[in-house]
UniProtKB/TrEMBL annotation:
GO molecular function, one term: ATP binding
ABC transporter domain mapped to chain residues: 1-232, 244-482
Topological category with respect to the lipid bilayer: Multi-pass membrane protein
Transmembrane segments: 509-527, 565-584, 590-610, 622-640, 660-681, 711-735, 741-760, 767-788, 794-811
Superkingdom field: Bacteria
Protein name, as recorded: ATP-binding cassette domain-containing protein
Keyword set, alphabetical order: ATP-binding, Cell membrane, Membrane, Nucleotide-binding, Repeat, Sugar transport, Translocase, Transmembrane, Transmembrane helix, Transport
Location of the protein in the cell: Cell membrane
Database matches in SMART domains: AAA
Phylogenetic classification of the source organism: Bacteria, Bacillati, Actinomycetota, Actinomycetes, Micrococcales
InterPro entries, sorted: AAA+_ATPase, ABC_carbohydrate_import_ATPase, ABC_transp_permease, ABC_transporter-like_ATP-bd, ABC_transporter-like_CS, P-loop_NTPase
A Pfam family annotated for this UniProt entry: BPD_transp_2
């Protein structure tokens, strides 16, 4: 890469950066957070287009690098924040990100995927949803994806940040293996010990510029630090507290136990920092979450002699989670809002928050922590990792906590910011706030903590104090422990059948099964009240109505899977019926009928293109874009048919309403189409890409999915399904009516949500959508057979959509809770 420059809103992220990667070398890139390392690697992989500069791969200048082209050139990257799709399974994440040739062979895709995971020692089920994986497991999945393509250039961006010692050793072995096979590796890290162990050459970035490149063997750590921070660092760690005879205990745990840990006892005097050590996944995170009041516990927690309950800790302790993006920050909010959110009560004047007080207090806090941000109202997502972590600390301190808990406080943070964070934690401790931190970096615990408690399998194996706190003693205690695993209250079931059942309950088909069961139970109840319920006439009418709604709902399902919504489906159906009323009439030649059908398809495709273009290129929200078409189509329908008119051909109506016994022909068609769409959604790249965009657009972009193309074609497909629904309505009503179809917008959304499709995108089924349509029509039908009034139709529709929304919200909450529990499951 030569003379690469990149600016964001006038702020230079990279300026004239030139880096050469030689064949078969490990080239380390060092620099503080915000130095431009990740931006440079995004340029190298085609995710970010530079403003200036050239990229040359094996002697060929690449004028416009894209993620897909980078992959074809043999460039693979393991992102600092894994480009995984949480709503999809492990196997689907591999299939959507990797070329189909990787899975070719006699053993099949599952065997190939299993071999990839085994290569990085990742023992998870292929059908496990990725949102249930730990942060470390997601990183290993990302590494497995990168290694699977046997890249010519492998970029590793902070790959060891969330990994334990054994996983780091395995990663280093794999890196050495791929380098021996001829792969070049770019290794981005904040840990100079890793540079010494792996790298041949090192390049240092600071403030978006190259500050030097050297052979690792020819430069000292002291020289590297000076280049990284632009100044000499006297000491990374602040001085520890000196003990005195008058020390009084201000923090005590006795018999403390909870999910993943038992019988934890410890005490500390004012000014001491307690460190929690051990191999990752041995109960440390569970311990910290219990101290924060996020998990139930037994035993006692005393601060300044006062016993605190879980509820007390939840409201009075400050917790800094390891997953900064997932739990620590609201990424869509500003720096000020993130810092202030836990302390809003202290800014209150009468019934309102005083903005002046908030700005003054938050500003002072951010300045005291040296947070570098364009302004307090800048999006927190625009900050570097170190500054984001400082915002988390600012929020914690502003809440005036009785206890400060930090899980991996410097994960992914540069050496300069680390020193500042250490000083902040030490200063908080000196003010009398008990500080408990967990870290996988033994050197960090050695330099910062006054006592270190080493855990293994949820139990204390050693407590180190004073001069005994050394990296060697900490690591030795952790790896030499012989304790047995404790019982994990919320742990993963190990029985294969239970595990499969859990995956089913958390999967896309659980809501589908529930809707199917409700249909059967409701049908059985109605039949006991009115034997005519299963008459041929009623079954035909019910299935016909469900088919019309089903076609439109299946289109709506596609839009929702992308993370959008289509409010125009109802008016589009009505407009297409009006169009049909001019062509499909008695006495019209067959050519005219065909022309009418073709025109309906063309109109629908144009509407889908306009919707998609407004969303992707016009930057409209899906609601705004499709609401625009909702209004326009309704107006066009009234222009063409100010009132009802244009009777539909009797022959066409007869064809649409053809039945085989009580089963309509088009119901058979929709069942077959549903099966085909479900197969495509689960087993074909089109379906994976559709769900990937809805699951996490940024991750989908990083793995090379064409977001614009996928979304626009998705809205076109949505509109084409509406054509089928309009054909059904044409056959049922037999006349051009501009008001037809409007109600189908809301009912289609209701049917889709009932079927289990997420309103947030990324997950859902076509089978569930068809059953949701059937249930909705069945409920309306039931009001007639049970002798209820029309008002009950609306009442039951409201109950169904409310129930669907509640069930989905509860499901998301439970899945999130489960994901947090898995963080600490003991192996």
């Amino acid at each position: 890469m030569s003379d690469i420059s990149k600016n964001y809103s006038g702020v230079a992220a990279l300026t004239d950066v030139s880096v050469e990667i030689l064949p078969g070398e490990v080239h380390a890139i060092l620099g503080e957070n915000g130095a431009g390392k990740s931006t440079l690697m995004n340029v190298a992989t085609g995710t970010t287009k530079p403003d200036a500069g050239t990229i040359t791969v094996q002697g060929t200048v690449i004028p416009a690098l894209t993620p897909g082209l980078a992959t074809s050139l043999g460039i693979a990257i393991v992102h600092q924040h894994p480009a995984v799709l949480p709503d999809m399974t492990v196997l689907e994440n591999l299939q959507v990100a990797l070329p189909s040739s990787v899975f070719a062979g006699d053993q099949g895709a599952a065997a190939a995927a299993r071999a990839m995971l085994d290569g990085v020692d990742l023992d998870v089920h292929l059908n496990e949803r990725v949102e249930n994986l730990t942060v470390a497991q997601r990183h290993l999945l990302e590494i497995a994806k990168a290694l699977a393509v046997r890249p010519a250039l492998l970029i590793l961006d902070e790959p060891t940040a969330p990994l334990g010692g054994a996983a780091v050793d395995l990663l280093f072995r794999r890196v050495r293996d791929v380098v021996a096979a001829g792969t070049s590796v770019v290794y981005i890290t904040h840990r100079m010990a890793e540079v010494r162990e792996l790298a041949d050459r090192v390049t240092v970035l600071r403030d978006g510029r190259v500050r030097g490149t050297a052979q690792v063997a020819e430069i000292t750590d002291h020289e590297l630090l000076a280049m990284i921070v632009g100044r000499q660092l006297d000491s990374t760690f602040p001085p520890k507290r000196e003990s005195t005879p008058d020390d009084a205990v201000n923090f005590r745990l006795a018999g403390f136990g909870g999910p993943g840990f038992v019988d934890f006892s410890a005490e500390a005097v004012r000014g001491e920092i307690i460190g929690i050590a051990g191999v990752v996944g041995n109960g440390q995170s569970e311990l910290l979450r219990a101290l924060a009041g996020l998990e139930t516990f037994n035993g006692t927690v005393e601060i300044e002699g006062n016993a605190l309950t879980s509820r007390d800790l939840l409201h009075r302790a400050a917790y800094m989670p390891a997953d900064r993006h997932g739990e620590g920050l609201a990424m869509s909010l500003s720096v000020r809002e993130n810092a202030a959110i836990s302390a809003l009560k202290s800014f209150k004047r009468f019934l309102f928050v005083s903005r002046r007080t908030e700005l003054k207090t938050v500003g002072e806090s951010l300045r005291s922590l040296s947070v570098k941000a364009p302004s307090m109202d800048a999006a927190v997502s625009s900050l570097s990792g170190g500054n984001q972590q400082k915002v988390v600390i600012s929020r914690a301190l502003l809440s005036d906590p009785v206890l400060l808990i930090a899980d991996e406080p410097t994960q992914g943070v540069d050496v300069g910011a680390r020193a500042e964070i250490y000083a902040i934690l030490r200063e908080a401790s000196s003010r009398g706030i008990p500080v408990v931190i967990a870290s996988s970096d033994a050197k960090e615990l050695e330099g910062l903590c006054d006592q270190v408690i080493v855990m293994s399998r949820g139990q204390i194996v050693e407590t180190l104090r004073g001069d005994d706190i050394t990296e060697e003693r900490i690591v030795s205690a952790a790896v030499a422990a012989t304790t047995e695993a404790v019982s994990v209250v919320s742990g993963r079931a190990t029985a294969p059948r239970a595990s499969r059942f859990r995956r089913f309950i958390q999967g896309d088909y659980a809501p589908t099964a529930l809707v199917g069961a409700v249909i059967v139970i409701l049908g059985a109840y109605i039949l006991t009240q009115n034997p005519a319920y299963l008459s041929t006439f009623n079954v035909t009418n019910l299935l016909t109505a469900a088919t019309a709604l089903g076609f439109i709902a299946m289109g709506q399902n596609i839009a929702l899977l992308t993370g959008g919504i289509d409010l125009s489906v109802g008016p589009l159906a009505g407009f297409l019926v009006v169009v049909a009323s001019f062509f499909i009439n008695d006495g019209k030649p067959i050519g005219m009928v065909i022309l009418g059908l073709v025109l309906m398809i063309v109109v629908a495709a144009v509407v889908g293109l306009v919707n998609g273009a407004l969303i992707r290129f016009g930057k409209f929200t899906p609601i705004a874009a499709t609401l625009t078409l909702y209004i326009a189509l309704g107006g066009f329908a009234l222009l063409l048919r100010p009132e009802q008119g244009g009777y539909i051909s009797q022959g066409f109506q007869g064809f649409v309403n053809t039945t085989f016994g009580p089963i309509p022909l088009f119901f058979i068609v929709i069942v077959l189409l549903t099966a085909g769409m479900e197969f495509a959604l689960r087993k074909r790249r089109w379906g994976w890409r559709l769900r990937a965009v809805g699951s996490n657009e940024e991750s989908a972009r990083r793995i090379g999915i064409g977001i614009n193309r996928t979304v626009i074609l998705g809205y076109v497909a949505t509109a084409l399904f509406v054509v089928l629904g309009a054909v059904m309505l044409t056959g049922q009503y037999g006349i051009g009516d501009p008001s037809q179809g409007s109600a189908y917008t809301l009912t289609s959304i209701t049917a889709v949500v009932l079927g289990g499709t997420s309103l947030l995108g990324g997950r859902g089924t076509f089978v569930g959508t068809l059953l949701g349509s059937l249930l909705l029509q069945q409920v309306l039908n039931a009001t007639v057979f049970l002798g209820l009034g029309t008002v009950f139709q609306y009442f039951f529709q409201g109950i169904l959509i409310l129930a669907a929304a509640i069930l989905y919200t509860v499901g998301r909450f439970r899945r999130r809770k489960r994901a947090l529990e898995i963080e600490g499951e003991l192996g």
